[in-house]
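check this one:
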Amino acid sequence: MSGRVTQAQVEKLTQQIGREMFERVRLAAASPFQANWWQELALKQCMRHDWLKVQAFRFIDVLPTMAGAADVARHLREYFVHPAYSGGSRSRASAEGDGNGAGRSVDGGRGEADAPAADGSAGLLRWVARLMSFERADSPRARLLAWLAQRGAAAMAGRFIAGSTPAAAARAVRRLRGQRMTFTMDVLGEAALSDRESEYYQRVYLDLLTSLPREAQAWPHEPQIDEADGVRLPRVNVSVKLSALFSRFDAIAPQATAERVKAALRPLMRRALEGGAHLHVDMEHYAMKDLTLAIFRDVLMEDEFRDYPHFGIVLQAYLKDCERDAAELMEFARRRGTPLWVRLVKGAYWDTETVHYDQEGWPWPVWEQKWQSDACFERVSRLLLERHQYVRVGFGSHNVRSLAHAMALRRLLGVPGDRFELQMLYGMGDPIKHAAVAMGQRCRVYTPYGEMMPGMAYLIRRLLENTANESFLRNAADPDVPVEELLRDPEEIGRETPPFEKPPVLKFERGELIMDPFENVPNADFTREEERRRMLMALERARGGLGRQQPLIIGGQPVVTGQWFDSVNPSRPAEIIGRVARADAAAVERAVRAAREAFESWRRSLPRQRAEPLLEAARLMQQARFDLAALLALECAKPWREADAEVSSAIDYCNYYAREFVRLSGDVRRRDVAGETNEYGYAGRGVAAVISPASAPLAALAGMTAAAIVTGNTVVMKPASAAPVVAARWFEMLEQAGLPRGVVSYVPGAGSEVGELLAAHPGVCTIGFAGSPAVGARVYRLAAEHPCEAPGLKRVIAAMGGKNAIIVDSDADMDDAVKGVLSSAFAQAGQRCSACARCIVLEAVYERFVDRLVEAARGLSVGPADDPRYSIPPLVDAAAQRRVREYVEAGRREARCVLETDVRQLVEQTGGYFVGPTIFSDVPPETRLARDPVPGPVLALLRARDFDHAIELFNASGFGLAGGVYSRSPANLERARADCRCGNLYINRRITGERVDAQPFGGHRLSGLGAHAGGPDYLVQFCEARTITENTLRRGFAPTPSVEGLEAVSGPG
């Protein structure tokens, strides 16, 4: 029959059904005597101005964390007084009212939000500002406003969330059934952060699947929702998110993740089967989609569940994969032999997905324009309904056009009633629900319940849906929008819509660019099977080339000193990565001499000639990125994502520095006066020693080397002792890229010998160093005591570690803070120079935060870096392992150890340099735990009385590399911007994972000397600045300015 149903027939019936539904919808519109009408009015007022909309949503988001009326009032004042109407009575921070501090400069420059509103809402904003201009947060007016805000937010939450307890949710379900609507129950909470939380969610789902079927037996029979075409339907329907069942759901390790999720899911499926209930798997973010579908298919093919028809899953029409996924799911259902349910929705995470994929530099998985999602929804609707013998479909939408189209297809295709239903969200589109019921449709309401705190993300998504400019509900409620427009075929809309122009990922605060636009290379996406396969193949290739001998390379020639050392795999030290020649004093002398001989010709080459080998090396690294990542995993204990990201950073450094110096040298600064030209430019200094760390053995080495050579210097490269083979591979790529012999020499060896010889050598003019503060201070001292033989002073550019801290404010998003601190402290076993070593938590939330953090850390698995099942790799060598163990032992005498992971058996089995995550609580600020930087998976937790005390503790270590703040108080965020003394401050995100150009990286105080790496002023440190002034007046004759311009040189090379 489906082949005889034409598109014209479907469209004609869609219009007919849609008009009938609209007539019913507009008759059932809310009136001023209903609470929803006033809520809609308040939302409309907020929506008149984007600034007010953002502030309202952010305030609602933070509201559940507030301790009392005074706290609520303080946040009201910070969020809702527009800066244009603040009257200067508050700090710029609270005047901005931007919960993320976005769009403002650190020095207090005004942003776009400061401008008075030009859209007619100025009066509203001025009135709000006056309303919030109370002096004290505990004044009667402040308390009244706080009470009103809390009541209003609770009413809004009550509209979209069925209650905070199972009993309240059950009452909501009975009310729905009284209106001839059925339900699917959902437990609020986006994802579990620990095994304890996963177990809690599993218990809640099990309780629901036990209590609801028992209660449902007493419900009066309602034919419209309890049966269809003589077929009895389950009265109880529960939706479950798989991320709630396993706290470390990650497609990078699909088999391990699937086993844990299936083990947690089976008891729910068993309970649903026993109680005759329906269990539906929700779809979440795109990164989880393929693995979620695979888990669903696997478990449904198990003998215990294969014959049960009341399991289902969600498909999202805003995904470009949706049609393919639908086709595969139908084929699976055919093979299974038992029908399954599909809930077809548009999708709820569009903003999050587009931002995430832009950040990663990956193509969007979602459709770019709304009409495309609508059109995909209709195509997949037909695809599913034409195969209704295999799949039953619930159409989840508040778009009357989409629903009418599905209803038309059902009628024309003759789909039985038990295989079709409409689904909508609790609290949204109630007139549409009532219209559908009146038209004889079975309408299922997605009914979430739970506490406000874990439910905030869901609530904000619902508010965004209700208020978006393109929202169907918003337009449908507008009597000025004709029904014909609302019922238009999305394909027709698409033909009239201009092609989508993706906005630039990198946005500039100023109207004038201070440097050329630059795009970072994207990291690999290990949620994709193809990327995982390429990494596994690269690891096989890397293992096939282990154990080779690697000589020094000096002046383009291999050199063997007679001394060798083994570079080993920290995960399995018996596995030798390579045998490497050890440089000695004679080799260092020879390398410096070769670099000096190559310097003159190299510095005279044109900037573009120096840039070309770097651009080619970047291209070669991109081609071999998985091989480089595999080598980093084996030699340097870098987990997959960290290894791949390091390759990206190395590529970015080469591309960025090459392009930036060509731009810099081609833009000679001219300040001419009458009869005189004045030029300002840069030239190379001489021989640069590059001494790189084990924490970033490729990225830091490539970055410093690239910066030195593109600016006209020659380089003696001393790699980290634990990463000589990675460094040799980088050197080979420079040679393959056409770098002249002698410009770079490769001299691996012990830092205490080779590094110190280079720092003290009179032939070295510049030292690029990255490593520990103690070694950096010694390099600085040696450089000062042994000047260049030119004569001249050496220049030291040092990037050193620190005692990086994150502040967790009392109003922080606890989920984000726990995840961010966990990642910052323990990724790569805490060995990154930017890793979090201290977490400063405000007293009001200290116990709750520490409890959740410790439980989350308890679930981190320790194991070999090349195995993606494990979260925590080993330390880089035995010396690092010994230092961290000693540090932990000392810590026991200074503070309370609340977590220590036992890895003794793993160490015995592999010999690896493993140390498990360790957390100390209530650490006194004067102790070694709070002050001494020792890279490793050890975190010190400090308690702060208030935010002022937190900043005092933040600055107390003397170091100043990276730091972070989790807060939703605009005033406190501005305090942090002004007073947290560190080179890189991260707000409401992890403090590791900086990006070249977008986030130049470097430290202050004891954490660094010089400009930030990957930034616009980094290259000039490797140069000598030169001013050249020429008198152009000869015997009274002065050339015209145009002639002077033609005579001007392009500047020093």
User: Anything to note?
Assistant: The first helix runs from residue 7 to 27.
